[in-house]
Automatic annotation (TrEMBL):
<dbReference type="InterPro" id="IPR003369">
    <property type="entry name" value="TatA/B/E"/>
</dbReference>
<feature type="compositionally biased region" description="Basic and acidic residues">
    <location>
        <begin position="104"/>
        <end position="115"/>
    </location>
</feature>
<protein>
    <recommendedName>
        <fullName>Sec-independent protein translocase protein TatB</fullName>
    </recommendedName>
</protein>
<keyword id="KW-0653">Protein transport</keyword>
<feature type="compositionally biased region" description="Basic and acidic residues">
    <location>
        <begin position="68"/>
        <end position="79"/>
    </location>
</feature>
<keyword id="KW-0811">Translocation</keyword>
<keyword id="KW-0812">Transmembrane</keyword>
<feature type="region of interest" description="Disordered">
    <location>
        <begin position="67"/>
        <end position="115"/>
    </location>
</feature>
<keyword id="KW-0813">Transport</keyword>
<dbReference type="Pfam" id="PF02416">
    <property type="entry name" value="TatA_B_E"/>
</dbReference>
<comment type="function">
    <text>Part of the twin-arginine translocation (Tat) system that transports large folded proteins containing a characteristic twin-arginine motif in their signal peptide across membranes. Together with TatC, TatB is part of a receptor directly interacting with Tat signal peptides. TatB may form an oligomeric binding site that transiently accommodates folded Tat precursor proteins before their translocation.</text>
</comment>
<keyword id="KW-1133">Transmembrane helix</keyword>
<comment type="similarity">
    <text>Belongs to the TatB family.</text>
</comment>
<keyword id="KW-1003">Cell membrane</keyword>
<dbReference type="InterPro" id="IPR018448">
    <property type="entry name" value="TatB"/>
</dbReference>
<comment type="subunit">
    <text>The Tat system comprises two distinct complexes: a TatABC complex, containing multiple copies of TatA, TatB and TatC subunits, and a separate TatA complex, containing only TatA subunits. Substrates initially bind to the TatABC complex, which probably triggers association of the separate TatA complex to form the active translocon.</text>
</comment>
<keyword id="KW-0472">Membrane</keyword>
Length: 115
């Protein structure tokens, strides 16, 4: 987050020693450490909550997309079965096949010869 090197920490420590003195410096460092720890925990808690919310939103989005795909596939599967069987159009026979069927009606069904 912040780019603080060893030299910067050394300068802050020397200034704190000069300003606070050797008696109050350990207590001030401990207090500062406690505050930094609380801030870090708060930030990590906030980050984890944000990550969790983003994950939940992503799951909602992907589940909605998958639901749409499944609904589309289900509609495609239902489509042939929506029409009743009686109302479906039968394929029309060719006129040439009707004349051959009348010829077949005149044949004897047992021996296949014409009468």
């Amino acid at each position: 987050m912040f780019d603080i090197g060893f030299f910067e920490l050394l300068v802050v420590g020397v200034v704190a020693l000069l300003v606070l003195g050797p008696e109050r410096l350990p207590a001030a460092a401990r207090t500062c450490g406690l505050w930094l720890g609380r801030v870090r925990r708060s930030l990590s808690s906030i980050q984890s909550e944000i990550r969790e919310e983003l994950r939940v939103e992503e799951l909602k989005r992907t589940s909605a997309i998958q639901k749409e795909q499944l609904d589309k596939e289900l509609d495609e599967m239902r489509q042939p079965f929506e029409q009743p069987f009686a109302t479906r159009e039968e394929p029309k026979a060719d006129p040439s096949s009707e004349s051959s069927s009348s010829d077949n009606a005149e044949k004897d069904p047992q021996d296949g010869k014409s009468r």
